[in-house]
């Protein structure tokens, strides 16, 4: 009995086609997307495997022609992180309200090469548009290599000449956090940033810089973290805080670690050092002390993203770039510096 016959009802995947043709799944993806620089003999071998395995190219053609399926494909990079995960859930909720279904494809930290596979998998489902939650610059660079012909929106704070974009204004949120510290009287404010391959981390770091420049205050060298509480703890226990009276951490998880690390050194928050985070995690108000942070309205972001996507699907004028304003939440982790 053939391998295909033993599959039952399971549709052959791009990996099966790759195995049959003796090529990588990335090569199959590039053939399906019409990429140049593929050897003709390789292209023919892939197409033959597609025909032999009944891998339905007609569904790709229908999707590329934007046939209405009332379904939106969502490509999610780093789905375990709070921001991407919350954005996905908000988009799913907004899609349901608009009568659309969502097909999601997740990319983990060590699977960036599967971005092209994710695009093909979503397109073969006949989606009407793509929404890409791509917080890392490297992910977006790989996405640009794809050509689907579908309306595409990327969740990122910077405008993009090639795609629609929507996001929470990360820079404005960071500026609000740092300005709050400045208004309290802090003059030396350290920054624990996220990985600077992330658009959000870059924007938050820029907001920290801009607020200090506007106030005429010195700018130190930020420490680049990895979003985790463990990194924040290490920073809190080892960083030289001489002269520093406040820390702006790029997310709440690192802020939690910073507070823990400072306490290990006998430094009290906010009596000795104030700490501000970013995200307003559900538990942030229960940190000890409750965390001052920046709240992102993911529900509003999901609704905005769907509004832009649906307008693009229907051929109406759609915003090229739009943003949601964040909100500073002041709690007990910040106070005036001791004189």
UniProtKB/TrEMBL annotation:
Keywords: DNA-binding, Transcription, Transcription regulation. Pfam families: LacI (PF00356), Peripla_BP_3 (PF13377). SUPFAM superfamilies: lambda repressor-like DNA-binding domains (SSF47413), Periplasmic binding protein-like I (SSF53822). InterPro entries: HTH_LacI, LacI/GalR-like_sensor, Lambda_DNA-bd_dom_sf, Peripla_BP_I. Residues 12-66 form the HTH lacI-type domain. PROSITE patterns: HTH_LACI_1, HTH_LACI_2. GO terms for molecular function: DNA-binding transcription factor activity; transcription cis-regulatory region binding. It comes from the Bacteria. CDD domains: HTH_LacI (cd01392), PBP1_LacI (cd01574). PANTHER family: HTH-TYPE TRANSCRIPTIONAL REGULATOR GALS, LACI-RELATED TRANSCRIPTIONAL REPRESSOR. This is LacI family DNA-binding transcriptional regulator.
């Amino acid at each position: 009995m053939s391998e295909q016959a033993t599959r039952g009802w399971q549709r052959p995947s791009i990996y099966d086609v790759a195995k049959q043709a003796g090529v990588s799944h990335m090569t199959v993806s590039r053939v399906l997307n019409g990429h140049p620089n593929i050897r003709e003999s390789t292209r023919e071998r892939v197409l033959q495997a597609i025909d032999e395995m009944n891998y339905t190219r007609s569904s790709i053609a229908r999707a590329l022609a934007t046939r209405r399926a009332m379904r939106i494909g969502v490509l999610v990079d780093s789905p375990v992180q709070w921001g991407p995960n919350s954005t996905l859930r908000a988009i799913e909720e907004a899609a349901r309200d608009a009568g659309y279904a969502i097909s999601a494809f997740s990319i983990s930290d060590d699977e960036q090469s599967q971005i092209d596979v994710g695009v093909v998998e979503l397109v073969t489902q006949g989606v009407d548009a793509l929404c890409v939650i791509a917080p890392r610059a490297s992910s977006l660079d790989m996405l640009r290599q794809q050509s689907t012909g579908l309306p595409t929106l990327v969740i990122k704070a910077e405008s993009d000449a090639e795609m629609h974009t929507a996001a929470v204004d990360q820079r404005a949120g960071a500026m609000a956090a740092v300005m709050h510290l400045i208004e309290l009287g802090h003059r030396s404010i350290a920054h624990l940033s996220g990985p600077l391959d992330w658009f959000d981390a870059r924007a938050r770091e820029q907001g920290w810089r801009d607020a200090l420049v506007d106030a005429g205050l010195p700018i130190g060298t930020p420490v680049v973290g990895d979003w985790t509480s463990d990194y924040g703890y290490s920073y809190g226990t080892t960083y030289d805080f001489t002269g520093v009276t406040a820390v702006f951490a790029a997310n709440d998880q690192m802020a939690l670690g910073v507070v823990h690390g400072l306490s290990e050194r006998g430094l009290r928050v906010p009596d000795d050092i104030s700490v501000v985070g970013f995200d307003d995690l559900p538990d942030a108000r229960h940190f000890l002390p409750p965390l001052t942070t920046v709240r992102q309205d993911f529900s509003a972001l999901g609704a905005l993203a769907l509004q832009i996507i649906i307008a693009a699907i229907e051929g109406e004028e759609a915003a090229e770039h739009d943003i949601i304003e964040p909100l500073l939440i002041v709690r007990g982790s910040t106070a005036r510096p001791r004189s």
